[in-house]
Amino acid sequence: MAGMQGAMKGAGRSGVYLAPAAIDPVRRAADEARLAWLDLDLAHVADKRAFLAACARQLGFPQWFGANWDALADCLGDFSWRPAPGYVVCWRDCARLGREAPDVLATALEIFDNAAMFWKEHGKAFIVLLDAEPGGGLRLRPFAVQ
User: Fold this and answer.
1) Nearest to residue 71, comparing CAs of 91, 90, 93, 51?
2) What is the pLDDT of residues 41-79, one digit of tens each?
3) Which residues, listed in sequence order, are joined to residue 92 by a DSSP beta bridge?
4) Is 68 a member of any domain?
């Protein structure tokens, strides 16, 4: 587990991935690396407004969150309101959003991927794990448990 913990803590793994079927070992490694684990349950999300509201509520965004794409990018690139050595955002049940609003899902993934690259450049892990392929021709790399 120590090797996995080190791999989790390093910024080099930052990115958007397909989550492994067994998520518990990943969560334990993230906990041991003291990374903030943020669950994003999208089971009832089918449009942009609901997605942004879910992010604000479940990721604990500050009051100033403006409920638009730019504000989402700002919050994901700040996290001064939730300091941690790094972050893991675990998207659950994203299939509905992919079916009903694939353009919204694609934009959201792009914003989260840009945030991951930002944090990577700043030496912090920012790992986004989706529990299912997003669809719409988008393919994710699997997150390999090491």
Assistant:
1) 51
2) 999 999 999 999 999 999 999 999 999 999 999 999 999
3) 41
4) yes
